[in-house]
Specification:
This protein has two domains: 3-187, no CATH class; 193-477, Metallo-dependent phosphatases (Purple Acid Phosphatase, chain A, domain 2), CATH 3.60.21.10. The chain is 11% helix and 37% strand. The chain is built from five helices and 31 strands. It has helices at 213-223, 241-248, 280-287, 333-344, 369-384; strands at 3-5, 19-23, 26-27, 32-38, 45-50, 53-59, 66-71, 76-84, 87-95, 102-106, 111-115, 118-120, 124-130, 136-141, 145-150, 157-162, 169-177, 180-189, 193-197, 227-230, 259-261, 304-308, 311-315, 350-353, 389-392, 398-401, 417-421, 438-442, 447-453, 457-464, 473-477.
């Protein structure tokens, strides 16, 4: 069904071309699509139709513009046309596709798309054009971010343009391609916030543990982050599926839909290579019982990557020497994957999270030389690619490190800042001998770490449980 809207399309203009903007240009059946026409005859009657039917008449304003909405009904390519006053634009919508893409089409058949159609500052917007004349193409966010291309023989171009550091709200970018000139409204989203901790939920067999997982999950609900990072040892004592349902799920499970977990050492206590494999309860809970893939990555592997705003985040399996884990050293599938993904997804800012820290001031010798030698290749790959932050758990306190290289040498210009946040709920304790690059420690305080991720920097703040006064906050530019 197509419904007319009064007035002109907000923020869209065209010169010397008749155009139609569609947002989104794809989506599952039932998706509402905003249509904005420009360059039509003034105060003309325009007929808009989708797939040859469900037509409606709209009238252009004194500038030759109109706005309307339609609904995607069906799957596949759905023909769409707008005609009136001697001018006509023909194009299509895609039923069944994702809703992240916008499109601008002209009467000549040229089509330019952009994905995503709304994003945070620093996000790379993918642009594609087809059926354009041989011409120069300029796409620009004011005042200075621009993409310049020349179309190929078939009238196509592609490229990526970063959303500049703009305040959240409505902005626009311009497209110029020969006689085609349009201003496209663009909604810049607030910078994303992530929060997390590790060493989280007590189980039925956790004895005298302090069990503050409900308190820390309440902190997460108050923050309302874009994503939650669960930094391993998510369910004590052995990651049993029944304990996940009875203890983790009523607390941190309230944020399961936005949680990105990594596997800790305790999860491997629930393993059966002959049936469910390794860390069975963990993968059953986060991926689904018996499922081979899901929020925790591929069953048995447990490493994956995803984007949050302008940042690339890497979830790694740091159980480097444990049977059933993928390994971390040269020749391991995990290390090869990490290097490949870092190379194919270059980012100004990136974060890696895992359960085990490479360095820790723990009284327990978690960071012995033998263990460090096994884990260090993951750090080296991340460091070589310009990685910024590593978040871990395992040690049951909070600790922030100075930017450093994989051998614990201070490196203010290129170093990785490590945060240990083993304060998710089970129990907390004091640190021991302080590591040389350790800057701040919060002992015997439950809480979560909040990170505000900007296009070229980040802010951190440790949020303690109610009644505690320790906190830690700061800001850092990305490399």
């Amino acid at each position: 069904m197509v419904a007319a809207l009064a007035g002109a399309a907000h923020g869209a203009t065209a010169e010397a071309a008749t155009t139609l903007r569609m947002e989104p240009a794809a989506g599952p059946p039932g998706t509402k699509v905003a249509l904005a026409g420009a360059g039509f005859a003034r105060r003309a009657s325009v007929v808009v139709s989708v797939h040859g039917n469900r037509s409606v008449r709209v009238r252009t304003d004194r500038h030759g513009r109109f706005a309307a909405t339609t609904t995607i009904r069906g799957n596949g390519r759905l023909k769409l046309s707008a005609r009136g006053g001697g001018r006509r634009v023909r194009s299509y919508l895609v039923g069944g596709g994702a809703t992240r893409t916008g499109a601008l089409v002209s009467a000549s058949g040229a089509r330019i798309t952009w994905t995503p159609r709304t994003a945070t500052a620093g996000t790379l917007v993918a642009l594609r054009g087809s059926r354009l004349r041989r011409t120069r193409v300029t796409v620009a966010f004011p005042p200075s971010h621009s993409l310049r291309r020349r179309t190929g023989r078939k009238g196509t171009f592609s490229g990526r343009l970063a959303v500049p550091q703009l305040a959240a709200g409505r902005h626009s970018f311009t497209i110029r391609a020969g006689g085609l000139h349009a201003r496209i409204p663009y909604l810049v989203q607030p910078d994303p916030v992530i929060a997390g901790a590790g060493d989280i939920a007590c189980g039925a067999n956790s004895g005298s543990a302090q069990c503050r997982q409900m308190v820390t999950s309440n902190l997460l609900l108050q923050i309302a982050p874009t994503a939650v990072l669960a930094l391993g040892d998510t369910q004590y004592e052995n990651g049993e599926y029944s304990n996940y349902l009875n203890f983790y799920d009523p607390s941190w499970g309230r944020l399961k839909a936005i949680t990105h977990p990594v596997v800790g050492n305790h999860e491997y206590g629930n393993s059966d290579p002959a049936t469910c494999g390794y860390a069975c309860g963990y993968f059953d809970y986060f991926d689904g019982p018996g499922q081979m893939n899901g929020r925790a990555g591929e069953r048995g592997a447990g490493y994956y990557a995803f984007d949050v705003g302008a940042w690339r985040l890497y979830a790694m399996n740091s159980n480097c020497t444990r049977r059933g884990a993928p390994g971390c050293g040269e020749g391991s599938a995990q290390l090869r994957w990490l290097r490949d993904d870092l190379a194919s997804h270059p980012r100004r800012c990136s974060l890696m999270f895992m359960h085990h820290p490479l360095f820790t001031s723990d009284t327990r010798e978690f960071d012995g030389a033998a263990f460090q030698d096994k884990l260090r290749p993951l750090w080296q790959a991340f460091y070589a690619a310009g990685g910024d932050v590593v978040m871990t758990g395992h040690s049951h306190f909070y600790e922030r490190y100075a930017p450093q290289d994989p051998y614990e040498h201070r490196d203010p210009a290129h170093g990785i800042r490590q945060f240990i946040v083993g304060t998710g709920g089970r129990n907390v304790y004091s640190a021991g001998t302080i590591e040389p690059t350790s800057e701040v420690r919060g002992e015997k305080t439950f809480g979560v770490l909040r990170l505000d991720l900007h296009a070229a920097s980040y802010d951190w703040r440790f949020i303690p449980e109610p009644g505690k006064t320790f906190t830690d906050a700061g800001s850092q530019a990305c490399h």
